[in-house]
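**Archive record**
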Amino acid sequence: MPIKIQDGLPAVQALAEENIFVMTESRAAHQDIRPLRILILNLMPLKIVTETQLMRMLSNSPLQIEVELIVPSTHESKNTPREHLDVFYKTFVDVKEKKFDGLIITGAPVETLEFEDVDYWDEVSRIMDWADEHVFSTMYICWAAQAGLYHRYQIPKHPVETKVSGVFSHDVSNRRVPLVRGFDDMFYAPHSRHTEVRRTDIEDHDDLMILSESPEAGIYLVATKDGRHVYVTGHSEYDPLTLKEEYERDMRRGLNPEIPRNYFPDDDPSQPPRILWRSHAHLLFANWLNYSVYQATPYDLERMQ
């Protein structure tokens, strides 16, 4: 949340130059406050796990948030009980007449497929187009980040020789952008993917900013200059044991996966993993909620443009 300072106080300019968000008294006096409305399109197979991870991130804020969950109507989930979906989830047709402050589109285990070969691609594309007029800011995670960049800019995804799996260090590319305020010079985040987007493809589009990347894992955080689209190629929301569970699952399937990098002490899967990304994850979601959503979205969502 911003710090509120008297109008005209010299500290306002000094703090602003340090990229600290300051709100003057006059601006604060004209702010209206209401709950933020966040929509989550959950494409992950273990939906209960994913929704819990995301709710944990969204709850680490003083803001009041109302969340709605949707799934594609064109895909049958095989890993989540039907009863859970019937009670807690809606489909796009149920929410398409509403407007939301924010939308989160999760990753999905379909990245080795061409986008158009995914059975719910047309529906996800319609939702991304719908969000232009019905959502103020959208966060795309992992496969969704690649899907969003492809849908909006025709940026391709490229296969990687070895699955990008583990916890990787990242650098900040542009500290003047509010979304990365408070990020350490080097911070950690998990990745789990078979494909990547490349810097050269992104740099062809003036509307996009590369905010963070990793020497090992590549591009991590990309955003539009207006902050209304945030693309996160990793999984900062992951629980401590998620990478371990994915590794063990692939072992059971006989896929002979590599040990997730920078995760188990001494690369020993029998040891508890080191958790290096909690603080970054909470800060990323808090910054998105504050700067991309709360500080920018209109009080009356019907005035959204």
In short: The two ends are 24 Å apart (CA to CA).
